[in-house]
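mind reviewing this fold:
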Amino acid sequence: MITKPLFMLMGHLATALGVIGIFLPIMPTTPFLLLASYCYSKGSEKFHKWLHNHKHLGPPVKNWEKYGSIPFKVKAFVIPFICLNLVYVTAYVQVSIYIKGLVAAICLGVIGFIATRPSHNGPQVDD
């Protein structure tokens, strides 16, 4: 059984990775923040509330939890970058065909997931 301190540690790590993802285009932000929200919900109500009420980190988490959606502008930004990554790896990286196939499967799976989520383009959740 996972203890509260371990959930707290995982929440802090996921939050740090989410913040790094704001500045590095190859790192996702929201999935790490969603993981942090889950970990904090199991480890500390204080940090869970802090994340949800954070000016910059809270809205994507609350929008996902309320609507299960990804804003269209995010989809339009992310999907082309995933495609560019796929083209780069398959055309220019010298690795086995099996690795290229694995990368292609992951990229296509992520694109499929993102494309099939509803798009909520209304106002950000502020509550």
